[in-house]
Write a structure and sequence with these properties.
The complex is a heterodimer of chains A (396) and B (158).
Chain A: E1 5-16, H1 22-37, E2 46-50, H2 56-60, H3 62-70, E3 76-80, H4 86-99, E4 105-112, H5 130-138, H6 142-157, H7 161-175, H8 189-194, E5 197-199, E6 202-203, E7 212-220, H9 222-227, E8 234-240, H10 271-283, E9 292-295, H11 300-309, H12 318-324, H13 340-344, H14 348-364, E10 377-383, E11 389-395
Parallel strand pairs in A: 2-3, 2-4, 9-10
Antiparallel strand pairs in A: 1-7, 1-8, 4-7, 5-6, 8-11, 10-11
Helix pairs in contact in A: 4-14, 6-11, 7-11
Chain B: E1 4-7, E2 22-26, E3 32-33, E4 51-55, E5 59-68, E6 89-96, E7 101-106, E8 120-131, E9 134-143
Classes of the chains: A alpha/beta (396), B mainly beta (158).
The structure holds zinc ion (ZN).
Pfam families (chain B): OB_ChsH2_C, zf-ChsH2
Domain ChsH2 rubredoxin-like zinc ribbon (chain B): 17-52
InterPro entries (chain B): ChsH2_C, ChsH2_Znr, NA-bd_OB-fold, Thioester_dehydratase-like
């Protein structure tokens, strides 16, 4: 019994700073995905929205907000929130109803409008909230966490700031021809190293921005796809949304400490490793079969961590892959052929879906100007606040 | 003058000659947590709900470190007087003998050049900022050696 579902349509609103309402972007992406699938909105029987937490009540009930904007069609509705993994969790909800036979056509939409600068916590004193306390007691920003991971790579594996810069150079090149990317400009190692240091060792150009953007995916049963005339659709083989296993011994944003390993012992896999491992296990596909990966490069150095977390190479070897050009399009295992967050900036509830859109285009051979030749299997990965993370594995 | 020095947050650390972070130890499975907890034991194999205070090791080893070259946004409280320039500060995540890693600012006067993964540090108490009640104190990590370089791969990657 196959647990596959078909990706019949994908669509995005270009990332940027457009100054519009998140609903506008979401509807744009939804209509693009429906047109791509050649399925009318009136045939959709489930809509799942990715919640945005910065846009009032309409954002909290994003699924219904998008449904109303598209015109109430009687579809069932759900809304998901899982930080950076929001889109994947929404996708998983749609997949589960399809596999249960409770739904034929599901539309999954994530959209966001984001503030300028650092993502700071909401106003008001909250002495029991680590996301507030980390700023108040430590001045610990998001880039500071990314910098901790980057520095470990330098002290443990001999990574250099030039390696991190090279990740940016690669991703900037990948994103040049991507019509949905916000930044489409070549960047040199000197540009990165010449930009201001935000949190040592990371420069401004090592760290991703925040963006407006929206992405949408139309999921159906494989049966429905066949009846719709698509015999070999891109298939979702796995959606991993696992939580950490105690003790989580890696310092995670926004925490001030880790769990203690003294009693329970250090777990077999770190949280990020376990996210990917669960996707591979569910799909019955191994890292050696992966053609490309879309990973959450909140910082350049984090892309190197992800390559290892996805078991695309051994721990400490990601710099060697990078330097050899293996992670560049045309190399052995291209990473972030879309240009990644480096070219997009982060639009939280849309980002995990954007990763799925890119992998779908790659597997269909439609990624004009950034195509990974012969791509058969693609994997996505991200991690967000409070035990959220996801990995989606797709194949043709 | 009624100005005093008080912790910026109640009950997270002791002050005095040998200050220490205060954690909670589960009375059922002995797992230690920081910050203190009064809820449920985080060990999935334990249903403990009772905790006793325990002082954490004052010394540990650097898991990683960085700094804040730009002034963090509120609720961070600026430490410099108006009109004066912002002074960057270093941050370190430190592994303690309790198997727990704890973030903290690095003691005043030290920067990333004084730090290295695996270096030993000691917990100290310094002033974080001042408000109408006086100095507000915070725990910080004081580098104990800035010489020896840790061998690559010496640290586990757990
Ligand atoms: Zn316990």
């Amino acid at each position: 019994m196959s647990n596959d579902v078909a990706v019949l349509g994908v669509g995005m609103h270009p990332w940027g700073k457009w100054g519009k309402n998140f609903v506008t972007y979401g509807v744009h992406a939804a209509r693009a995905a429906l047109a791509d699938a050649d399925i009318p909105w009136t045939d959709v029987d489930l809509i799942v929205g990715g919640e945005t937490v910065r846009n009032g009540y309409g954002g909290y009930v994003a699924g219904a907000t998008f449904a109303q904007a598209l015109g109430w069609n009687g579809a069932r509705v759900a809304t998901s929130y899982a930080a950076c993994a929001t889109g994947a969790q929404a996708l998983d909800t749609a997949r589960a109803r399809i596999l249960a036979g409770l739904c034929d056509v599901a539309l999954v939409v994530g959209s966001d409008t984001t503030p300028k600068g650092f993502l700071a916590p909401n106003a008001g004193e909250r002495w029991d909230d680590p996301d507030w306390l980390r700023f108040r007691l430590l001045g610990m920003t998001n880039p500071a966490y990314f910098a901790l991971y980057a520095r470990r790579r330098m002290d443990l594996y001999g990574a250099t700031q030039a390696d991190f810069a090279q990740v940016k150079v690669k991703n900037a090149k990948h994103g040049l021809a991507n019509p949905n990317a916000r930044y489409r400009k070549e960047v040199s190692v000197a540009d990165v190293l010449g930009s201001a240091v935000v949190s040592d060792p990371l420069h401004l150009l090592d760290i991703c921005a925040t963006s407006d953007g929206a992405a949408a995916v139309v999921l159906t049963s494989v049966d429905y796809a066949r009846k719709h005339g698509i015999a070999a659709p891109v298939r979702v083989k796995a959606v991993s949304t696992v939580t950490p296993t105690f003790p989580n011994t890696v310092m995670d944003m926004p925490n001030l400490s880790t769990d203690s390993s003294a009693v329970a012992g250090v777990p077999e896999r770190t949280f990020k490793e376990s996210i990917a491992h669960a996707a591979y296990e569910e799909a019955g596909i191994g890292p050696e079969d992966v053609s490309l990966a879309e990973v959450y490069d909140l910082s350049t150095a984090l892309e190197l961590d992800w390559i290892e977390d996805l078991a695309l190479c051994k721990r400490g070897e990601a710099e060697a892959l990078l330097r050899a050009g293996d992670t560049t399009i045309g190399g052995r295992i291209p990473v972030n052929p879309s240009g990644g967050l480096a070219c997009f900036g982060e639009a939280v509830p849309a980002q995990a879906l954007a990763q799925v859109c890119e992998v779908t285009w790659q597997l269909r051979g439609q990624a004009t100007g950034r195509q990974v030749e012969g791509a058969r299997v693609g994997i996505t990965a991200n991690q967000g606040l409070f035990g959220h993370g996801s990995s989606v594995l797709l194949s043709v | 003058m009624t100005q005093t020095s008080t912790p910026a947050i109640e009950g997270w650390f002791t002050t005095g000659d040998e200050p220490a972070l205060i954690g909670s130890r589960c009375t059922a499975c002995t797992t230690v947590f920081f910050p203190r907890t009064a809820g449920f034991c985080g060990n999935p194999a334990c249903s403990g709900e009772e905790f006793e205070d325990v002082e954490l090791s004052r010394r540990g080893r650097i898991w990683s470190y960085t700094d804040a070259q730009y002034q963090p946004p509120p609720p961070y409280v600026p430490t410099h007087a108006e009109g004066e320039a912002y002074v960057p500060f270093a941050l370190a995540a430190v592994e303690l003998a309790e198997g727990i890693t704890v973030l903290g600012q690095v003691a005043a006067g030290y920067g990333v050049d004084d730090l290295r993964v695996g270096d030993e540090v000691e917990m100290v108490v310094e002033t974080l900022y001042a408000d109408e009640t006086g100095d507000r104190l915070i725990w910080r990590w004081l580098p104990l050696n800035s010489g020896p370089v840790v061998e690559l791969g010496q640290e586990s990657d757990a």
